[in-house]
Write a structure and sequence with these properties.
Strand 5 and strand 6 form a beta hairpin. The strands form three sheets. Strands 9, 10, 11, 12, 13, 14, 18, 19 and 20 form a nine-stranded mixed sheet that branches. The protein has an eight-stranded mixed sheet with strand order 1-5-6-7-8-4-3-2, sandwiched between helices. Strands 15-17-16 form a three-stranded antiparallel sheet. The chain contains nine helices and 20 strands. The protein is of the alpha+beta class.
């Protein structure tokens, strides 16, 4: 179990003011970014970590916007090499009893009603260092992690973006892929290695309109359901990368992800095919069938649709590692909202054959004919 500090509600603001003063007083601002999350949220990113500006610009290429006066949230990033004594040196807390060998510290805010709300964690032995948040402000102090290695451990800031978006009833950040043709999109629901990235990237290379192959923003309004991108890179297994190599002439290889060993590619060269606020007309569940002679798309039964809906919610919550403490976006709240946004969509299952080109042609014919 980690060492826990319980902070009085009245003291939380003072603690975070102390943290902000420390960051701005001890580190030089490298660059300020502003990104848009769908049509509602704007986020300011302040990076004090040398060597990060180019990486962040590539990661959020499709979401970057000009500065705004009143962003909905702020993320601060800095290099913190003193995590071992961070709680006393920076936050001014009594280090209390030292537990030999314990490196994980958590901060918990105690509300007046007695409820407990997590505020952050400090890992003195790990590269991720300090993660803290209060209200609409998020803090990342990285210890010993090279900037070029960020993308290898996943999509950066995704947990903060998840929390920012899911405070609104009409927006969700979900783990899924979205592609389409002529303004009609399909939302593909599948866990890792389920075929969604291969199908979405193959389709992108064949002229489809593209939102994302991994994380995206869903927006619900009176006109329907829409999807928007966050990140401007994709991930592919080494086998699929080799098969698509000749067609990926406008992509840039960034590295190998530590999560399942996938290749990470910058696809900003395909910018004219990216779409935001893109209409989602159907759910699509990819099913890899090695012995399928030809791919096919079939309507899902009510039971199959239920499993598809649950899977996209469960896959997202699994990716986020959501805390069960009150005050975080809990699994049940997120699942209830997301299912409400998706329930009205028709649902189909696409049986994927070993021929990835045939799979993309099958999907194109389905969208053109059905949606």
């Amino acid at each position: 179990m980690p060492v826990s500090y319980k902070i009085k509600d009245s003291s939380a603001g003072i603690l975070f003011d102390r943290l902000k003063a420390y960051i701005s007083g001890s580190h030089s601002l490298v660059r300020e970014f502003f990104i848009r999350l769908g049509n509602l949220k704007t986020v300011r990113i302040l990076t004090y970590y040398p060597g990060t500006a180019g990486i962040l610009a590539r990661e959020f290429g499709w979401s970057l916007i000009p500065p705004v006066a009143h962003p909905d949230a702020t993320i601060r990033l800095w290099q913190e090499t003193g995590c071992r004594d961070f709680v006393s040196r920076v936050l001014g807390l009594d280090p209390g009893q030292v537990i030999e060998g314990e490196s994980w510290t958590e901060l918990i805010r105690c509300a007046p009603d007695g409820e407990l709300y997590p505020m952050g964690t400090i890992d003195s032995d790990g590269p991720w260092g300090v993660h803290m948040s209060l209200g609409n402000e998020y803090f990342y102090g990285l210890d010993g992690l090279e900037p070029g290695a960020w993308f290898k451990d996943g999509h950066f800031f995704v947990q903060a973006l998840f929390r920012i978006l899911n405070r609104d009833d009409n927006h969700s950040l979900v783990h899924g892929a979205c592609i389409g043709r002529n303004g009609s999109g399909v939302l593909m629901c599948a866990r890792g290695n389920g075929g969604k990235s291969t199908l979405s990237v193959t389709s992108l290379l064949r002229g489809f309109e593209f939102v994302s192959d991994d994380y995206l923003i869903l927006e619900k309004d009176r006109e329907g359901l829409f999807a928007s991108p966050i990140y401007s890179f994709i991930t592919l297994s080494p086998q699929m990368y080799d098969r698509m190599y000749d067609d990926l002439d406008r992509a840039r290889f960034l590295g190998i992800s530590s999560w399942k060993g996938k290749y990470v590619l910058d696809i900003s060269g395909y910018g004219e095919r990216f779409r935001e606020h893109y209409p989602v007309k159907a759910l699509l569940f990819p099913e890899i069938t090695p012995d399928a002679a030809e791919p096919s798309v079939v309507p899902c039964s009510a039971q199959e649709k239920g499993r598809t809906l649950v899977q996209i919610a469960h896959s997202t919550t699994f990716q986020m590692w959501i805390s069960g403490l009150k005050g975080e976006q809990r699994d049940a709240d997120f699942i209830r909202k997301t299912l409400g946004m998706l329930t009205g969509l028709p649902c189909y299952r696409i049986v994927l054959s070993p021929d990835i080109e045939a799979n993309a042609r099958c999907l194109a014919a389905f969208i053109d004919k059905t949606l």
